[in-house]
Amino acid sequence: MFSTLLIANRGEIARRIVRGANEMGIRSVGVYVDADASAPFIGDCDEAVRLSTGYLDGAAILDAARLTGAEAIHPGYGFLSENAEFAAQVQAAGLIWIGPSPSVIAAVGDKLAAKEMARSAGVPTLPSSEDPSDARSIGYPLMVKAAAGGGGKGMRIVHDAEHLEEAVAAARREALSGFGDDRVFLERYVAASRHVEIQILGDHYGNLIHLGERECSIQRRHQKLVEESPSPAVDEAMRAAMGAAALELARAIGYHSAGTVEFLVDDDTRDFYFLEVNARLQVEHPVTEAVTGIDLVREQLRVAVGEPLGYEQDDVEFDGHAIEVRLCAEDPSAGFLPATGTLVAFESAFDPWVRWESGVEQGSVVTVSFDPLLAKVIAHAPTRLEAASTLALALERLHLGGVATNRDFLAATLRHEGFLAGDTTTSFIERHQPARVLAMGADELDWAATAGALWLQGQNRCATPVLQNVPSGWRNARLPRQRVTLRWNDEPVEVTYNARRDGSFSVGDHGHARVHRWSDREIDVEVNGRRATSRVTRAGELLFVQTPHGTARFEIAPLFVVPGGAAALGGLSAPMPGVIIDVRVSVGQHVEAGETLVVMEAMKMEHVITAPTAGTVGEVLVAKTQQVDGGAVLLTIEADGEGTDEDED
Length: 649
Hints:
This protein is of the alpha+beta class. The protein is 25% helix and 33% strand. It folds into 5 domains: 4-98, 3-Layer(aba) Sandwich (Rossmann fold), CATH 3.40.50; 127-188, Dna Ligase, domain 1 (2-Layer Sandwich), CATH 3.30.1490.20; 193-432, ATP-grasp fold, B domain (D-amino Acid Aminotransferase, Chain A, domain 1, 2-Layer Sandwich); 442-463 and 480-556, Glycoprotein, Type 4 Pilin (2-Layer Sandwich); 571-639, CATH 2.40.50.100. Helix 1 links the parallel strand 1 (4-7) and strand 2 (27-32). Helix 4 (84-92) runs antiparallel to helix 5 (102-109). The radius of gyration is 27 Å and the shape is globular.
């Protein structure tokens, strides 16, 4: 076994590989770009080398390996993990490549070539074509897919011929940006379907096994959010059939190392079809590790140095159920658009125990430079219901603030009756509509607001230079009532209180509260008979208060409103920082509601800005290739009927 491993990746997967290397007594070397200069994974490595260009600069990564004496390179996933040319360069440099051979990566990296290999191996596939003129024979609805990539990039669902040309063009742009290859193809779209993948593992001696299946059907923008093993829809017969098909294809291409064969399962007919081979570790690999007890990173490293697997298919045992969710910096209430900002709060609870694979920590800055994935959270339990409940509780107890995330949506999904019933097809979100934001009843909201207001009262007392033990608002006569207004989802929540002589507080008209313990990070408070210790974080005029179901985000309303300029009337703004890649309208042009106005790119994904109403374009404030900040006004529209009234004599 080698002694030093360079990890050509970042974030949570870099930290995961470091942990695996440490457990095998292997030193780890990291690489990073300026945007990651303060990232936690750098501190986990024994040493790190700055890349002046980027994570796709293979030559610079090889130089870093030579500089640090690394004998092997692990690419993680994404970036260079499925780049056959880079894998060959690693081997040519006399280093060990952690992954399948360059020839295998090249063979399966092209989805069209991989589909042809699957057909040759007798694995069923969906009708597809590279020629858009074949759309009618494939049938609508169909999917436009990038030939050289995945992860939801370069994918579009098309329901009719009218929208095919635009979908193909958009998919080509996204594929070129994400993978450097703009080839796309058409494939039949199955609406009632599940994404089920088989984890495979092989060595250099022809030994191949599968480690069961993972279902990854709950997705947004064709990107996975929830993954689990085993699938609630797969029985022993289907598992055996899919496993046999995956291994047949793997043998045909001479696969070794860890990999995944992905299938689409028609939920109505129970037929399954080959989708692609991922020649790398998957984001969702922890659920397989949980149910099999097999460390996939360890197996990758063992196989890379020529060790045999040492066990056979019959030796693989499955235990219980595991579920993983992807905690992402995105706003579910705004169509899951990626979000940016600083994580002013990021602290998991001690219980229940779940596995955290995180690339961030409190204080981390989330930018548009990379994928919005913040962490993977995995629960393993004897039953699916227990795994889902444990994972939901862990998410709800996560103290989180400063960046919009999908945490509340994920917790709501895990507790949704449709999910618990196993109704987890790719249309789950559209059909079941789990809550996208934290939902609190009136009593819970009042409790959280009161806890927040009394925490602020304690903070104010600590900040005062004199008489800190005197209650705020104290007078030598009757104590006046204090008033704090907190805004919850843009709605004001007013908390009034005054201190009583016994140290407690009267709240509102008839309420009562007592602070049992206060610190600059939490408050132990009893409000109207309900006592709890709540984590609290303040960031400027934002207050994050932990509740039983998540973190309540309050805005502290100022006592006096300072007059300021208003946003441009009728202005459409950028939902996040990004680059303008197309402007479809000009000044004076009339547009209809829903018409595309501007297309921008952020985090390697295209985002379309559409007209909210019919009207006339007043100003266009951006141009192609322009970099814009989040919230920047892109253009203005005067809605039909506005500005037409004339003064009458």
